[in-house]
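Service request form, structural biology core

Requester: graduate student, group of Dr. S.
Request type: structure prediction, single chain
Budget code: on file
Notes: please return the result as C-alpha cells.

Sequence provided:
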Amino acid sequence: MRSILTISYPHPDDRSSRAVISMYGTAPFENLLNAGAGTNCKAGITALCLLVLCSLLVAPVSAGMTTTEVTVTKLASDGVTVLNQTTVDWQWMKENLPVIGDGETIYYMQGPIFEDAWNEAHPGETYDPWNPSEDVNLIYKDHGEFMGTDVADLLDLAGGAEPQDRVKFVASDGLPKEWPAEYIYSPNARQGPFCLAWYHGSDTGYVNQSFTDGMRLYFLGETTNADGMHVWGNWDMHESWAEDYWYYYSGIYPSASGVSVQNVKTITIYSSETPLAPIADFTAEPVAGEAPLTVQFNDTSANVPTEWDWDFGDGMASAEQNPKHTYQNDGVYTVMLTVSNDQGSDTCTRENLIAVEVAGPHEPQTYVVDADGSADFTTIQAAVDAARAGDSVIVRDGTYQDNVVIGKSIVVRSENGPEKTIIRVARTESKDDHVISVTADGAVVSGFTLRDAETGGAGLGVFDATGCTFADLVCTNNSHGISLHAAPGNEILNCSCNNCYRGVDLYEGSDDTLVTGCNLSYNADYGIWAESSGRNQFIWNTLVGAEGGGAINLRASCDNLIAYNVLDCCNPQGAHCLVVEWGSENNTVYMNDFLSSVLLVTVDAGPNAWNSTEPFSYVYENRTYSGYVGNYWENVGGRGYTGEDADGDGIGDTIYSLPVHSPEFSPQYDRYPLAERFGNYVGEGNVIPLSQGWNFISVPRTLASGLDTAAVFSGVSMVGRPMYSYDAVSGWETLRADDPLSPLMAYWVYSETPCTVPLTFDPDPVSTPPERTLAQGWNAVGFTGFSPTSARNAFLSIVDEWSCAIGFGAGEQRYEVSFINGAQGAHGDGRDLEPMQGYWVFMRSAGRLCAISG
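Core staff response, request fulfilled:
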C-alpha cells in the first residue's frame, strides 16, 4: 500500500476550490487535522506544510480583485456593436432589484471527488466521481448564507437575452465563463438561479466589508441532499447542463464548484440581434438664464452611436458625447445633434431651446401652470425654464407627469396643496430619474404629491444645494422619498414620505439639515437615513411601521439632535427604532417615544448622550419642574424601561441601560428615562393654540436653547405659506426655520387646521428680562406673560410714545377693536391683552418696550 502524501492545486478556473490534499494509506486530511498529538501525526503535518509552502512558491493561485459593481453589455450579432450597456453597484442592486437568498440558508458547492474521500464515505462501493447522493467534499468548499441578485434581472437591465444567446462572465483578473441564456432564464431546479452574490453571511458581510471574493457567482439550487443541505453538486451539473458546460478539475474530476466565478466584473450578452442605426435625442440643463449661461448637454440617443456632432446655434460646435457649452450673448438658440455609427446616422433638432437673457436685476415674476392651457404654461418644467432667480411658479390643481429639474433659486409651489396637485415621474430609466431634482441654492418647493420614481429615484432629489426649503410634500411609491446628496443647510418641513424604500436620506455631508413636523412611516427600510452627515436636527417627527430596517439610522454621522419624535417600528421580525453605528458620536437623543419594537435601539458607536445635556423646564401632571429629561422606552416583553417614578416628577428613579452591540464601546445609558410618553410633559401654559387661517402670535417668555426657532412651528400645515415678522424699519420679513423666536416680537402663522404648538422655555432663572426698541410708526409686538394684563400695564414703558394698538381675532379672521392710549369704554386701554397673541402698536416716536415677564 502506498503511503505517499500528494498535494494538488486547483486549475485556475477552479478558484473556488481550496488546495486538494489526499493521503494514500492513512486518514483523509481533515481527519489528520483532528487527530491526537501523536508523533506520526505531527510529522505528517510538518511534511504537509513544507510541501504546501514549496507548491505556493512555484504555483501561486490568482486571487483576483474584489468587485463592488458590474457592467452588463448587450452586443449585436456581429459581436462588436454595443446595443445596450449599464453599470450598477451592489448597493443599487440591493435597493432596486429583487434579492435572492435570505442571508441565513447555507448553500454548498461540491468539489472534485477523489477516491480516498469516496472510500471514506462509501467503503466497498464502486467509485463514482459524480456522487449523486451529494455527501462527499462539501464541508470544505465555499459556502455561505448568501444574498444577491438574480442574473436574469441584471440581463434585463441591458435589454434581456433570448434562450439561444450566449452570456459570458468575466472576473476582475480576466477569467471568463460562458453559458447559454436559457440556463439563466429557465434554470433547472437542481441548479437554481444564477446568483451574483454581494453578501456572504454575518461573519463575512458585504462586498465592501470582508466578502473579498465578491461579487461571486453561485447557484441557489432548490433541491437538498439526504441531510437537508442545499448543494450545487456534481450530479446537479450533470443533470442541468449539456456536456459542453461541465467542468472537470485537472481534466479528470467533475467539480461543480469550479464554475463559481469570483469577483465578477462584466457580464456580456452575445445576441443575434442585427445592429441598428442610432436614433438621436438629448437633454439640456438649464435651458434659460442670464448671460453668460453654461448649459450641460447630455446625449440620450438610442442604439449606441459612436460619433456625435453638436451645433449649439451660436456658431459653435462640439464632437463630445456630453459637452458643456457657455452662451455669451442674450438670444434664443436652436440646438442640433447628429449621431452616427456603422449602421447610419440621425439628427435631432430642438427649435428655440435655449433662452439667454441680459444679465442684471429684474422685477420678480410669477408664472402660473395649468395643464388645461388656461395659464402661462401647461408644464411645470416649461415654467421653471422661463423663470429667473427670485421668480415664483404657481401650479394649479391637477395631475402632471414630468421629471422636473430646478437649477435656479426660485419658488415652485402648488396653489392648493398636495392632495390636489400631483406630479408623477415621467421617466424611470435609472436611479437618477427623480420626480423633482434641485441643484440650486435657495430654492423653495412646497405643496405637491411626488410619486412613482421606483427605479432608484426619489420624489425629491437635492444635489449640492444649500439654503433650500421643502415643505408640505407627500412622497409616495418612490425608491426614496426625499434624498439629499452633499446638500447642507436645508429644511424639510411638514412632509410625508411613505411606501418608499427610505423616507428621508442624507448623504455625503448633507449637514445642518432640519427635518421637522414630518410623517415618515411605512417605508421598507428606514424613515430617516443619515450617512456621513452631521449637526442635523430631527425633531417633532412621526416614524411608524418600518418593514425591515427601522425608524432612524445614523451611520458615520455626528452631533445630531433627535428630539420629540415618535418612533414605532411595530415589526415582530426585529426592526429598530434607532440604529447608531459606524463612528456616529456626540449625538443627543431625548424626549422621544421608543415604542413596541423588538429592538428599541441598537448602538454600535459612541459616545452619545441619551438624555438632555442641560436641564430645562417641563410640565408634568400640572406641575412645573426643571431638570434633565431622557426618553420614553415602552416596556413590551421586558425590553423597555421597567423602573418606577416614586417621587412623581415624571423621571424614572433608575437608569435605563441601552444594548451596545460591540464590547469595544463603553456602556451607554439614558440616565433620566421618562415615566410616560413625552406628550405628557407639555402643559397648558406651554402651548400656543392656532386657529384655521392666519394667526398673529407671540411667545410669552424666552425659549430653551435649541428649541427657540421658527422650527417649532414646522409641524403646522401652512399649505406652502411662510411665516412672517414685521419691523418698522425693514418691513415684512419671511422666517426660515432656523430664525430665532424672541419675546416682544410678533409673528404671522397660517394653519390649515386648528392645532396647538408646544413650547419649551429656558429654565435659567438668572437672566435679564427682554426689551426692545420700537421705531416711529406701526410695530408688530408680542405680549410677555402667562396671564392677561391690561394694555395700560403692558405698555407702561412706552406710555408717552404709543397711541393705538390692534389685535387680530384668529377665530373670526378679522382685526379686533383697537386699544387707544388713555381712552375709556370700548377702546379703553384698561382692556386686557392675551398671552400668546401678537399686536400692532403705533408709535408717535421711538421708544423702549420692556417685558412684564421674564
